[in-house]
Each structure stands twice: as structure tokens, then as C-alpha cells.
Design goal:
10 helices; 359 residues; flat; 50% helix; alpha+beta; three-stranded antiparallel sheet; 11 strands; 20% strand
């Protein structure tokens, strides 16, 4: 009978019980941010706790059935052996499922995603297929009740796509779509082909975890505030009081001034708001460099020989070359029915991680 070490599982179950108590504490409920974070943690632990409870029950049932095998009643013992055989298989499955649930999580799995789709080799045919991939992913998102938001779209005269960027938001979006990054190869007779020849074209797809909002924490030690007398239109009041504000952010050298308001307090509030916006842009720009580097690494050159998946329309098949998985329902696939392929990729990834953990 296959078993699993339970020390970590017991600790998780204990933590889950603590969370159940904490989220019902009025003091915690009053703090929306803290309460939401505890609920998120509980939600993450819930599948493990439920599966562990199922495992413990199956193990207890096995022990009871094993004990009945020594009852001396032939009919009862036969039933007990049959029950033990069934529970042995169930326990093996539960152990595998628990091992997968205990694997380290990709910190980006719970994030929303940004998809970038561009034609590579193949000219107009590649652009047309890029348009079809956009439609396919949007239909997949619709099937999963995710929200899609177009960010930018550049099309060709024939309805193809030169570049499409769109965001998808919902539950665990990136964990499902991250395997789509790479070169997608299509083999078919293009609408622009007059002699009926099959062409091979490629489209690059990059799936990136949506950049999180940068929390701008302005440390008082990092800023210098100067007050001075406002100038310009505004009457005598502006010229007689030091209501204007200049804030210098020392680490970045960003300077913000505000003299629009007669009140120094209001000018200071507005100046801090503008500073926060400029700092957000500054830090976001740094993140964008890493974002661009990640995208470049994902899509390769777009050459026809580079491909993660082939869409062969004459044969009606879609083959994912990373795991050798083929389906013969290309029409359904192009209409957003990606579930079987995505689940196969997720399973292959989990299996590889399990094997790596065992080494």
C-alpha cells in the first residue's frame, strides 16, 4: 500500500484550522486587507486539506478492511480482500494527487496574463493565422468565464494581424496559458494561394504574467520639501505667501512642483500625488525592461523550424511537439476547445517536477 509522509500535511491542516478561526474574528474582519489575505491563504490550502482528509479516511477504511480479513468468515474475508484491493488503488491515486498539490507553486500562476501575438514567417498567411489564434484564445477565455481586454491591435488590409496585445483576467489565468508561449506553426492552403499548394507559416505567441501595480512607498528620509512664493496670475494672495511646494525625491532625482492651489496644504497633497505617479512610471519602466527580456526569450526567432505546436489543416490535427500530444479535432480546437491539450501540458509539467523532486 502506497503511503505519504504526513508531517507537512498535518502542519497544513493545523494552519488551515487556525485560518478558519481567524477569519471569523471581528477584529480581523474589520481590517479588510488582512481579512482578504487570510481568505486567500485559506483558499490555497483548502484543496490540500480536503485531499488529505480523503486520504486519511481511505487509510482508515483500509485498516478496518484488513482487520476483517482475519475474522474467520470466508465470505466476509473475501469482501474484505476486495475492499483492500480497491482501497490500495485509491490510496495510490490520492498519494500522487497529494504530491502534486504539495509541489512548489509558480508565484505567477495566480496572476492575470498578457498575450502578445505576431506573425513571423509566411507573410499575409501568417498574419491571417495570427488573427485566428487571437480568436481562439479569446474563445478559450470565454469558455472559462475569464475577461478579455484589448490593449493594442494592428491589422492588415485582408483582416490579418500584424500585432495583437490583449489582457486576460480571471482565476489562475497564467497557470493555464503559460504553456502557450512559443512558435505556432500552421500548415494549410492559404486563401491567397491560387494553385492549391500547402504552405507552412508561423506565428509567435508570448504569454506573460500581468505586471502587478507597483506600490509606491515614499520614505520621508528620501524626500526634500521646499516652500516658496508662488508667481504668476492669482492676485496678491499668491505673491504674499509661501504656498508653492517643491518636492525632490533624492534617490531618483525626480522633482515635482505645485503652485496651483492657494493653500500650501493642498499644493503639498497634489505634489505628493504627482510624485507618486512619476515614481510609478519610473519603477514600472524598470519592470518593463525585464518584461521585454522575458518576452524575447519566450518567442525565439519565429523560424519555421522552431515550433511548439503544429496546426495541420489538411490532416485535421493539432500536435504539441513538447509532449507528443495530438488531437484530431482542429475545428473544435480553433473554436477555443483547448482543454485536453492544456491539461496534458499541465500534467506533463507536474510529472516532470515530481520526478525532479524524487531525484
Amino acid at each position: 500500500m502506497q503511503t505519504i509522509k504526513t508531517d507537512r500535511l498535518d502542519a497544513i491542516a493545523e494552519r488551515y484550522a487556525q485560518l478558519e478561526d481567524k477569519i471569523q474574528d471581528p477584529a480581523v474582519i474589520a481590517d479588510n486587507k488582512a481579512w482578504a489575505e487570510l481568505c486567500r491563504e485559506r483558499s490555497e490550502l483548502s484543496p490540500i486539506v480536503d485531499k488529505y482528509a480523503e486520504y486519511k479516511k481511505a487509510k482508515s477504511d483500509y485498516a478496518a478492511a484488513a482487520e476483517m480479513q482475519g475474522s474467520g468468515d470466508a465470505e466476509l474475508e473475501a469482501l474484505a480482500r476486495e475492499e483492500c484491493d480497491s482501497l490500495t488503488e485509491k490510496l495510490a491515486t490520492l498519494v500522487d494527487e497529494l504530491k502534486i498539490l504539495l509541489l512548489p507553486k509558480d508565484p505567477d500562476d495566480g496572476k492575470n496574463a498578457v498575450l502578445e501575438i505576431r506573425p513571423a514567417a509566411g507573410g499575409e498567411e501568417a498574419a491571417l493565422f495570427a488573427s485566428e489564434l487571437c480568436r481562439m484564445y479569446k474563445m478559450f477565455a470565454e469558455r472559462r468565464r475569464w475577461k478579455v481586454e484589448d490593449i493594442s491591435l494592428n491589422t492588415t488590409e485582408l483582416g490579418g494581424v500584424k500585432e495583437a496585445v490583449f489582457g486576460i483576467s480571471g482565476k489562475d489565468v497564467f497557470s493555464f496559458l503559460k504553456y502557450e508561449s512559443g512558435v505556432h506553426r500552421v500548415q494549410r492552403v492559404p486563401v491567397t494561394e491560387t494553385q492549391g499548394r500547402v504552405h507552412t507559416s508561423t506565428v509567435t505567441v508570448a504569454v506573460l504574467p500581468e505586471a502587478e501595480t507597483v506600490d509606491v512607498d515614499i520614505n520621508e528620509k528620501d524626500i526634500k520639501i521646499d516652500t516658496y512664493r508662488s508667481s504668476g496670475a492669482g492676485g496678491q494672495h499668491i505673491n504674499k505667501t509661501d504656498s508653492a511646494i517643491r518636492i525632490t525625491h533624492l534617490p531618483t532625482g525626480i522633482v515635482v512642483t505645485c503652485q496651483d492651489q492657494r493653500s500650501q496644504t493642498k499644493n503639498k497633497e497634489r505634489a505628493f500625488a504627482v510624485l507618486a505617479t512619476k515614481l510609478y512610471d519610473y519603477y514600472q519602466g524598470q519592470k518593463d525592461e525585464a518584461y521585454a527580456s522575458l518576452r524575447k526569450g519566450q518567442v525565439g526567432t519565429g523560424d519555421r523550424s522552431e515550433r511548439i505546436r503544429t496546426y495541420n489543416f489538411p490532416q485535421g490535427r493539432v500536435t504539441d511537439h513538447r509532449i507528443g500530444f495530438t488531437i484530431y479535432s482542429i475545428d473544435e480546437f480553433m473554436n477555443g476547445d483547448l482543454d485536453k491539450t492544456v491539461e496534458a501540458l499541465r500534467l506533463a509539467d507536474q510529472t516532470a517536477k515530481l520526478e525532479g523532486a524524487a531525484d
